[in-house]
Amino acid sequence: MCCLTDIFREYYKYENIHLTFIFFKDFASKYARIAVDSEVKFIVDEDRWFDFQHYVLKFARNNHDFERRLKIDEQYTYTPMITMIGN
User: Fold this and answer.
1) Which helix (H) or strand (E) holds 22?
2) Residue 25, exposed/middle/buried by CB under 10 A (0-12, 13-18, 19+)?
3) pLDDT in tens, 13-57
4) Whole-number pLDDT of residue 8
5) What is residue 12's predicted lDDT score, i.e. its pLDDT?
6) CA-CA-CA-CA torsion for 37, 39, 41, 46, nearest 10 degrees?
7) 52, exposed or middle or buried, with CB in 10 Å at 0-12, 13-18, 19+?
8) Which is nearest to 27 in space by CA: 47, 48, 57?
9) What is the CB neighbour count within 10 angstroms for residue 35?
10) Is the separation of the CB atoms in 59 and 28 below 8 Å?
11) Residue 8: count of CB within 10 angstroms of its CB
12) How far, in Å, CA of 37 to CA of 58, rounded?
């Protein structure tokens, strides 16, 4: 049995293939934003991709402050040694 990554490895002549599948309803996830910003992507349906991009960017625009807060929280989560300097 052959899997999709094997097909892509052979087609692209590249061993380090990683696939990420994002459902249309997951437009609010950080992986959706990464997919939209990525230079390398394989798009199956151009019309659905356009709609998906539209929803991702609309969500990002409408929730700019929320996304900013999440990025700050994520930074503190992954950085164990942060010194807070107050006024």
Assistant:
1) none
2) exposed
3) 888 887 777 787 887 787 888 888 888 777 878 898 899 889 888
4) 84
5) 84
6) 70
7) buried
8) 57
9) 20
10) yes
11) 15
12) 14
User: Which two structure tokens, joined as six digits, stand for 37?
Assistant: 């910003």
Residue type, 43: I
Token reading at 35:
């997919």
Distance (Å, whole) CA 35 – CA 41: 7
Token duo for residue 71 = 């990025």
Q: Three-state DSSP class for 4? A: helix
Taking phi over 0 as left and psi of -120 to 50 as alpha, with beta for the rest, 28 belongs to alpha
